[in-house]
Amino acid sequence: MSEPSDWGMQTRLIHTGEHTAAPGATPTITPIYTSVTYLYPDTAALDEAFASNEGYVYARHGNPTVATFEQVMTVAEQGAGAVAFSSGMAALHAAILAAGTPRGETAPQIRGILAARDLYGASTSLLHNFFAAQDVAVTFCDLCDPAAFAAALETTRAAVVVLESISNPLLTVADVAAIARSCHAAGARLVVDGTLTTPILQQPLTLGADLVVHSATKYIGGHSDVTGGVVVARSGLLLASLQRYSRLLGAILGPFEAQLLTRGVKTLGLRMRQQCHNAAMVSTWLDEQPEVAHVYYPGLAEHPQHVLAREMLGGLFGAMVSFDLKDGSREALFRFVDALKLVVPATSLGDIYTLVSLPIISSHRDLTPQQRHERGIGDGLVRLSVGIEEVSDILSDLQRGLRAADAATP
Ligand SMILES: *Cc1c(COP(=O)(O)O)cnc(C)c1O
User: Is the CB of 378 under 6 A from ligand 1?
Assistant: First the structure.
């Protein structure tokens, strides 16, 4: 569907990619196409479909339901095109391969990867246990210091830089624009995992990133009922690499999942703004509680990158809030979580309901206390993904948890 270029983001998220089926009986919402193969009037037309790379021939090469999701994500991120994957990890893998493929080449030639030190756990493992294990030089550095980052880029001569727009679980904010400038000056490509910000807070491609990756399992799906990922590319060249790796590696998104994700995107703006609003209230409230030692939230004036966050995130500060319990013992943490009646103790994030997780027993379990300490992750750290419930109900539940955490064990 052609769309007026002056439509606002929320309008585009609802209408992009829809109403595009065969003329005559056009459904308002793209149907779930389960067909693996597609028929053409004659062999010449099939030949042309193969040659032009347009039109559908086989499910692993493209699917109309998936294409609708890819189109809306392309618009949301203001990119040249998108490729959907079966999970966020599959998307990140393909994005790194595409970023490491030089112009004119059909295979990656990655001389080095420079990555943020505090990436999502599985992303760190992908770099360590997969890329480094294949003799790619992988270096981790603290991206909060742009000068240190530029120096690391020069010494490592990395071809690919990987970072998260807001890190997890300490919620530091990356200066994507400054980092992108350094990357391009050094001939490196920048991959931004924008899962925690979503295109509602930040569109990394407009700040100079080359590829933006989302675990669509999180905010984009938003209801904890679908696993998926997507990469949006800045150029046609990177898009072509992504499509090639998607077809070869085969970690494609299924049509049922694509339909759920397209549906999720339509309410992403509403959900995200409400979640950020609730998270701001939760962070301010936690900051005043005697049982809490420290709150990590980019919206708080005390957050080290508060000013940068204001600039980078369009006036919202995300919907994740982390905090340190004053009593950082395992017993107190467990009492806190077990006393909660509303907040769900599950590992994911970005859902419409509030979730709690304890990094020391989940995402950062495999690190030694020393490694956690080096990353600034204290033993009493609690991570919340704030949902869209009534904020007063979230606060009462957290109050219940804090009282239980504080209660002396008999
Ligand atoms: C969850 C997550 C991933 C991995 O996504 P999956 O859909 O679980 O494969 C990658 N990056 C971030 C920031 C995540 O939160």
Answer: no
pLDDT for res 334: 97
Domain boundary, last residue among 240, 265, 290 = 265
Predicted local distance difference test score (pLDDT) of residue 186: 93
Per DSSP, the residues of 9-39 read HHHHHHHTT-S-S-TTS--SS------SB--
User: Can you give the residue range of the structural domain that contains 23?
Assistant: 9-265
Asked whether residue 85 is domain-assigned, the answer is yes
Q: Contact, 328 vs 379, CB < 8 A?
A: yes
For residue 48, what pLDDT is reported? Answer: 92
Distance of CA 330 to the CA centre of its chain: 29
298 and 190 in a common domain: no
Ligand 1 pocket member 123 (CB < 6 A): yes
Q: Which ligand 1 atom sits closest to the C-alpha of 216?
A: 7
Structural domain ending residue among the three candidates 232, 265, 298: 265
Whole-structure pTM value: 0.95
Check whether residue 256 and residue 289 sit in a common domain. no
Predicted local distance difference test score (pLDDT) of residue 1:
46
How many angstroms is it from 320 CA to the middle of ligand 1?
14
At 237-262, the pLDDT tens digits run 999 999 999 999 999 999 999 999 99
Q: Tell me which residues of the chain have a pLDDT lower than 70.
A: 1-4, 20-24, 408-410
Ligand 1 atom, smallest distance to 92 CA: 10
- Give CA–CA dist 144/164, Å, rounded: 11
The answer to whether residue 124 sits within a structural domain is: yes
Residues 301 and 387 reside in one and the same domain? yes
